[in-house]
Design a protein that fits this description.
73 residues; mainly alpha; 3 helices; 75% helix
Length: 73
């Protein structure tokens, strides 16, 4: 229980710190809002890539890459 209490204290203190510190030159945006926004943007781009079928590597692609490497030797 002591470990969970320490982790909880650390996470709440760090989140409070990030919500109070503002990004210089960006107006009233805090670091927490910036990090959450960047994380959600990266996640949504990754989801779109999987939905449209690009950006993912299948087993056929890996086999083709392996065979292409053998041809170069």
């Amino acid at each position: 229980m002591e470990l969970i209490s320490c982790i909880s204290f650390f996470l709440s203190a760090s989140w409070k710190f990030f919500t109070q510190v503002q990004v210089p030159g960006m107006g009233g945006i805090t670091f927490a809002a910036l990090f959450v926004g960047l994380f959600l943007a990266a996640l949504s781009l990754r989801l779109l890539a999987y939905m449209f079928g690009f950006g993912s590597i299948g087993s056929d692609t890996l086999t083709d890459l392996r065979d292409a490497g053998k041809d170069r030797r």
